Amino acid sequence: MSVLSRSVLVLNQNYEPLHVCNVRRAVVLVSRGKAEVIDRLDRAKSLLRSVSGVHDVPSVIRMVYFIRRPRPVMRLSRREVFNRDRFTCQYCGRRTATKDLTLDHVLPRFRGGGHTWENLVSACRVCNHRKAGRTPREARMTLRSEPKRPSVTPASLFGQYLESQPTWAPFIPGAERVLSTD
């Protein structure tokens, strides 16, 4: 992987995580005076050489001015349902690999159940097959937790990067909770 394509955490002026960009974009923002470097990659491992000299590669930058943006909304997707349920079958409680998990409609769609956060759960193949087109009550199965829309937090938005970028943890509120569950 090229140094220029590595990930850089971008913080708002108030140190709230905004998004992730690549090193090339981060260097442009810093060189134009729109951002400042807060944290760098290990100096011994990576330096960025340019016509104007040798520079440290940024890992975290902070915007100089405040950026207003709407609050993010968690999109309903297969991956996000699995994340909400922590890759655990909501019927038997077994933690499973993504390839062995399925989405289950608590109230089956053909019986009026919607494709919503409140009606979708993660289920292993065995439990999903056992439940079939019935409700959990009819199948004599119980849910481990009530399905609901997850709250959007910086940890839920940027948690996927923490395994490869543990130095970002101090800048992402709730990161310690994400790191401790893995």
Strand count, sense and barrel status of the largest sheet are:
4 strands, mixed
Q: Order of strands across the widest beta sheet? A: 2-1-6-3
Beta strand count: 8
Q: What's the end-to-end separation, in Å?
A: 25 Å
Report the oligomer: single chain
Q: How many domains?
A: 2
In terms of DSSP E residues, the strand content is 15-25%
Please provide the ordered H/E string of secondary-structure elements. EEHEEEEHEEHHH
Structural class: alpha+beta
- The residue fraction in helices comes out at 10-25%
Task: Characterise the protein shown here.
Helix content is 19%, strand content 23%. The protein is of the alpha+beta class and 182 residues long. It folds into two domains: 86 residues, no CATH class; 54 residues, Orthogonal Bundle (DNA Binding (I), subunit A). The strands form three sheets. The chain has a four-stranded mixed sheet, covered by helices on one side. Strands 4-5 form a two-stranded antiparallel sheet. A two-stranded antiparallel sheet has the order 7-8. It is elongated.
